[in-house]
What does this fold into?
Amino acid sequence: MEHKIFLGKYRVAPDKIAQVAAEPASVSVGAATEQVTTARTYRGDEIDSGRDVNIEVLPAGTFKPAVRTKLEKEAIAAKEIDHINIPALYDFGIEDDQLIYVTEYFEGASAEEWVNEHGPMPTGAVLRIALQVMGAMGAAAFHKISHHAINPANLILVPGQTPEGDWPLVKVLHFIGVAPTFTGGDMSVAAFDKSTHYASPEQLQGQPVDFRSEIYSLGATMWFLLTGAPPLMAPKGPLAMQPTTIGLAVDKL
It folds into this structure.
């Protein structure tokens, strides 16, 4: 099999394509419009320079014009962001009814993986992570970009140190492109998956997300890093009748 070429400049080896599974995601415009789709992220390289890159591919054939316009504007703005905690966006384009994002490649493990392997983080490390995430959110907000999924899985601990010489150094994934798919008002047991532990109440209800919602998600993420389990708000409906051992109910503290 031949390499897959994206935007005429980036290639992915056949074995890398075979290893990647599609992930559910959504894109929101305003308060009501939401398009559900699947995204794939590949490790590839730039043909001319040989530089390693991440290539995120988002099928866009069913997107409404407003959705495409929003994503294109966000990508143009994101290319202007130069922040140590946000992966650089090298390139963006539409090809064969697909949105293609080409970003900085780096090694590392998610904060979720680190905690699952090592247990809760020291308080100092959690505070350093929070400060880095806040800096990243501020840089993105300057360009009118909000993050829809601050959670431990989207915080990557990369090799190296912060500019102050501390550990850990963090990269915040998914400032642009896709956002997680939530279930709106559906609070059934099946709908209450791990991603909802970090989403703000307004996000779960399908309302607009801004900096305040990001702060909520960051707080929930810090809880996980400090305790090893996500906070669990006591929901209404069928889920309230189910026993759980995941985290502590915030309203019980």
Remarks:
- The beta strands are 4-6, 10-12, 23-29, 33-46, 52-59, 89-95, 98-104, 109-110, 155-158, 169-172.
- DSSP finds six helices and ten strands in the chain.
- The first strand starts at residue 4 and ends at 6.
- The helical segments are 14-19, 65-78, 111-118, 123-142, 201-204, 211-227.
